[in-house]
Prior knowledge:
Blueprint: H1 2-21, E1 28-31, H2 33-47, E2 55-56, E3 59-63, E4 70-74, E5 86-90
Parallel strand pairs: 1-3
Antiparallel strand pairs: 1-4, 2-3, 4-5
Helix pairs in contact: 1-2
Amino acid sequence: xxxxxxxxxxxxxxxxxxxxxxxxxxxxxxxxxxxxxxxxxxxxxxxxxxxxxxxxxxxxxxxxxxxxxxxxxxxxxxxxxxxxxxxxxxxxx
Length: 93
């Protein structure tokens, strides 16, 4: 349980750091519906309650159903300006 949550948080931090090294300022994490439900269940098991996850690692959390089991760390100001500004990773295999 705790290991899965730590793995997700580590991936978010890793992708955010990669973006920062490329000169971006990541500020949003987009989750697919399945990925978000998994994350939410892990957080609620760890901390109790039935709360929504609105922020992780200082970044806003948003849902984008099309991502499914994946998540994307994003610099929202850089999206649409060309290549870069986002890093995708798998939450669930």
